[in-house]
Amino acid sequence: MSRKLSTGRAINEALRIAMETDPDVILLGEDVVGGGTLEGDDLEEMGGVVGTTKGLVKQFGRDRVLDTPISEMGLLGTAVGAAATGLRPVAELMFMDFLGVSLDPLLNQAAKLRYMFGGKVRIPLTVRTLCGAGMQAAAQHSQSLYWITAGIPGLKTVIPSNPADAKGLLLAAIRDDNPVVFCEPKLVLNQVGEVPEGDYEVPIGVANLAREGGDVSLVGFGGTVPIALRAADLLAAEGIQADVLDLRSLAPLDEEAILTTLEKTGSLVVVDESTPRCGIASDVAALCVDRGFDFLNTPVRRVTAPHAPVPFSAVLEKAYLPSAERVAATVRELG
Amino acid sequence: MAIPISMPKLGMTMEEGTLLQWEVDVGAPVEKGQLLYVIESEKTEAEIEAPASGFLRHVYVDAGEIVPCGTLLAAIADAPDGDFDADAFRQEHDRPAEVESTPVPSAPASPAAPSQPHVGGRRAVAPAARKLARELDVDLERIPGTGPGGRVTREDVGAYADARAALVGVGDGIGLEVPRLGAGDPVLLLPGFGTDVSSFAVQTAGLAERHLVLGVNPQGVGLSDDPELEVHPVSRTAADAAAVIDGPVHVVGASLGAAAAIELALEHPDRVRSLTLITPFVHVGARLRAVTDAWTRIASEASAETLARALLPWLFSPDWLADETARERGVRGLAASVGRVRAPALARIAAGLRAWSGTRAEDLSRIGAPTLVVVAGADLLTPNGAAVATAIPQAECLEIRAAGHAVAVEAADVVTERLVSHLAAH
After folding, report:
1. Which residues in chain B are closer than 8 Å to A293, comparing Cβ atoms?
2. Which of A159, A164, A313, B23 has the most beta carbons within 10 angstroms of its beta carbon?
3. Binary contact (A333, B154; C-beta < 8 A)
4. Annotation: CATH topology of B109-166
């Protein structure tokens, strides 16, 4: 059975299932409670900046759903410590842009401890974080910095493109014994789709062929998957059938799935809402040249945001983001 | 009575055409020879004249439509009104050719030719194309690219390999590209120096109505093999042509192709039913030699279009060059044709041409086949064609005064008409 939920609600459901099935799972973050939840207080809690954790404190209580001070370094440091000492924390980094003030616990602790202690410690930590543009949250709250976490050995980074995957990936992330960064793209947060009931996981490191075509491969993840799917519709009207591959996991990267679709079509366009330098799109392009060279029938093209901050203006933000039209035009240029 | 107008087939590789524009309104009178409509095929526009006088009675295909060759486009009737059953007329005359879904062997070559320089920088080849070429053991250098900027794609390699598989073996493991069109008594076409059989596009279309037209691309031309000899003798072209055919056929050669045709008529008289020599020669004059030298050099250093532009003044008459539309169309057609001959092959062919000079001056009187010689009044390269006609016992001579060396292109219709009647008479 399934029913329609938004991505935000699907994440909420995954958190509830994780907490019901494992008493070691705790939530912590800025405003994850966010409001009057004291006994007898009828104030509605906020449940995080966009309400994703709403209702969880009422079910699981203040011992397991913790509001933290406005210190991301403290929040993540606490979470890493809790993970190292036996809990299975889910920390919410309100915006991925705040990596700047909280990186050390992730970069030097969470990612390294298991390695440094010869496997004698495990860090079953999940960091949930809003990423990307699309909500007019401006330059300091709209970045897609998953390329930073995906580039750190010892961290996993996943990013769902739809509600069903969001639920399954988050459950897999929480139950993973290693630190996982779970990105919540603003472009898909309010997207509504079928979500299976009950407890299920989407395996980390496995891409999904979201649409089967055969003439060209469109690779996306998170918010660019719906964009790639719309581009595939535009192209289909012109007789060009596109594979759309949803990476779902940026680290580990499902290299075989990328090479499989490339081998089939010979042409690949990767769509990333992040900036172009040192990014996931560049990484995918490099993979195609490195391991898929003989498959290439056209150049690998990247459709990304420009190398510029995300603008606040709705008009500019729309122009900044990759669009289905731009993806389709790029495919047409391949000839 | 009404006359059908159908989408013409202007070249062996043409399968369909776009009707760009009707030049006459429905119901309006038309004169034979009047511009009736314009089509576009393989990136080239062609203006088509009315084949008869009358009234444009009915139009079946509107401007902008793409239809296969043979599709009924319109009817020209004796009267602007009166009985005319458009549907019955269509039933009777609509004969669209089957359009192949896969590219025909030489199809990609012609349109792509101008965008690929022979040399000068690395050719753009998709890695997948490189790999497939390696697997199929085909020479990438010879594959025309249809991707952006002339990039060779995987599909180009596949099409080339398929075309290679269709080559006609002429011995010694050598295969020639011999495009075929039509049905009937066979006609063999031998193109001139540095061009492929697409230079006979109009003749091919005209002859194919009642003949099987076999265009022979000599060694080094088009997809034909190119053994890397120092000299490619004219006698080789003739021997290869003889190997392509079984019985006696009509042989048509232009310029160097005429030299090969002479060679064929002398060495294999049993294979030649009639002979048509367009701008023939027996001695290579200093100017022809200088032009073929320049041709070879430019081909190795510049694009096919540059080569075509440089050649234009040598091949066409001043009158024709004065018409800008004709000139630009000529550049495109010539570029497509010369672009199908590799520069290294040109050097070998030029050496063969020089070696042949003068060797058959005394033998023309031995040619027994009924011969038509076509000469052009403004021919700068082979100005002594009429002497060839005089030397061949059974030769008729058609002189087209206001045309240059490329008379089969410049005065295509006149040449075709005469060619058709010459073949019909023999």
Report:
1. 127
2. A159
3. no
4. Dihydrolipoamide Transferase (4.10.320)
The overall average pLDDT reported for chain B is 88
What is the SS3 assignment for A311? coil
Name the amino acid, one letter, at A195.
Answer: V
Cβ A300 vs Cβ A288: under 8 Å: yes
Q: Which regions of chain B carry the CATH code 4.10.320.10?
A: 109-166
Cβ-defined contact of A298 to B153 (cutoff 8 Å): yes
Q: Is A238 on the interface with B (CB under 8 A)?
A: no
Interface ipTM: 0.71
Residues of chain B that touch chain A, judged by Cβ-Cβ distance less than 8 Å: 126-131, 146-148, 151, 153-155
Picking from B129, B148, B154, the nearest residue to A333 by CB comes out as: B148
Tell me which residues of chain B have a pLDDT lower than 70.
12, 99-122
In this structure, whether the domain defined by B2-93 belongs to CATH 2.40.50.100 is answered with yes
Interface touch A298/B130, C-beta < 8 Å = no
Residues of chain A with pLDDT under 70: 35-44
Domain B169-286+342-425 has CATH 3.40.50.1820: yes
Q: Kindly report the number of other CB atoms within 10 A of residue A13's CB atom.
A: 20
Domains of chain A plus CATH, in order, are: 2-196 (3.40.50.970), 208-333 (3.40.50.920)
Q: Is A297 in contact with B126 (Cβ distance < 8 A)?
A: yes
- Which of B100, B105, B157, B111 has its CA nearest to residue A266? B157
Provide CATH 3.40.50.1820 ranges for chain B: 169-286+342-425
- Is A141 an active-site residue? yes
Show the tokens assigned to A330: 């790029």
Would you give the distance in Å from CA B304 to the centre of its chain? 16
Of the candidates A141, A186, A211, A301, the residue annotated as catalytic is A141
| The residue to which tokens 């949930």 are assigned | A128
Asked if residues A297 and A330 have their Cβ atoms less than 8 Å apart, the reply is no
